[in-house]
């Protein structure tokens, strides 16, 4: 049986004499469901190199290792698709996703996705992981995207997102000028009852909060930096439209009378992603430079 690289933890002085289960739950935040899966494996939870029951006591300096059996992405066909890798270790893969590529295979679209390229990349390295994107980016959105290499890493960063501990920063080019140079959009979002693939701002929707800051103003557009407090589908696109400034090139949420955009996709880029690494527990940020099509668009806007 093959295992992922173990998650490790050194028992701290203030945890001396704790029950192992308490350390796993309170310090490593392992969910009951995941812990049940780990306990069923041959290695399970080890203390100082020895397989142990989670009912034992642990002491200062003890080394705890959590072992998880490897899973595969057998249903994803490996394809040699170029990847812009920003970071990779035994626990995470961080890529700069290009616009025009779907993250995960969907019904009727099984090939030429980011997942196909990632599985191929791992295969070339002689590694085998299940493809676990921690979050999603729309097909046309470029930028930083994180992929977990085991279920614990996925669980931990997902919980950080729920607890608003993950920093997600975007850059967008919007049509027109926002009402303020800095502001917050607190407007609930839900599906459009008439067009189920679209989202709208509605009082009956789910809480959605977007913070923004105008970086530059042009004659007919603005360069905006945005931070998400929540992660609703199409949140930035819907909130910018709600303010009367839809994203340039956005075919779904752009105004009907919008002039021909200077970029052929929604001008949205995930510029920065920050979170606490689940193994080192240190805060880490990853950044992706503004793509060439958005840089060219900004150049055109400056010359208007």
Automatic annotation (TrEMBL):
One of its GO terms (molecular function) is isomerase activity. SUPFAM superfamilies: Pseudouridine synthase. Its EC number is 5.4.99.-. Residues 91-242 form the Pseudouridine synthase RsuA/RluA-like domain. It catalyses: a uridine in RNA = a pseudouridine in RNA. Transmembrane segments: none annotated. Belongs to the pseudouridine synthase RluA family. It is an enzyme of class 5 (isomerase). It comes from Chengkuizengella axinellae. It comes from the Bacteria. Responsible for synthesis of pseudouridine from uracil. This is Pseudouridine synthase. NCBIfam families: rluA_subfam. Keywords: Isomerase, RNA-binding. Pfam families: PseudoU_synth_2 (PF00849). The lineage of its organism: Bacteria, Bacillati, Bacillota, Bacilli, Bacillales.
């Amino acid at each position: 049986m093959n295992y992922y690289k173990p998650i490790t933890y050194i028992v701290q002085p203030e945890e001396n004499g704790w029950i192992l289960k308490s350390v796993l739950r309170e310090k490593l935040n392992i969910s009951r469901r995941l812990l049940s899966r780990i306990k069923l494996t041959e290695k399970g939870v080890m203390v100082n190199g020895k397989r142990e029951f989670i009912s034992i006591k642990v002491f200062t300096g003890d080394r705890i290792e959590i072992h998880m059996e490897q899973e595969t992405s057998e249903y994803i066909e490996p394809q040699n698709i170029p990847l812009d890798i920003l970071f990779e270790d035994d626990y995470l893969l961080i890529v700069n996703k290009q616009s025009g590529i779907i993250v995960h295979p969907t019904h009727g679209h099984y090939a030429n996705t980011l997942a196909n390229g990632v599985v191929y990349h791992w295969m070339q390295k002689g590694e085998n992981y299940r493809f676990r994107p921690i979050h999603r980016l729309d097909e046309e959105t470029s930028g930083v995207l994180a992929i977990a290499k085991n279920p614990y890493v996925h669980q931990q960063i997902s919980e950080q997102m729920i607890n608003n501990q993950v920093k997600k920063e975007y850059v967008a080019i919007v049509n027109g000028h926002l009402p303020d140079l800095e502001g917050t959009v607190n407007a609930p979002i839900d599906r459009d009852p008439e067009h189920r693939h679209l989202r709208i701002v509605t009082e009956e929707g789910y809480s959605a909060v977007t913070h923004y800051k105008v970086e530059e103003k042009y004659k007919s557009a603005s360069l905006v930096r945005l931070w998400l407090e929540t992660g609703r589908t199409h949140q930035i696109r819907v909130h910018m439209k709600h303010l009367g400034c839809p994203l340039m090139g956005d075919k779904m949420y752009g105004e009907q009378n919008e002039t021909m955009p200077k970029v052929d996709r929604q001008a949205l880029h995930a510029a920065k992603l920050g979170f606490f690494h689940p193994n080192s527990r240190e805060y880490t940020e990853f950044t992706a430079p503004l793509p060439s099509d958005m840089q060219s668009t900004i150049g055109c806007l400056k010359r208007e």
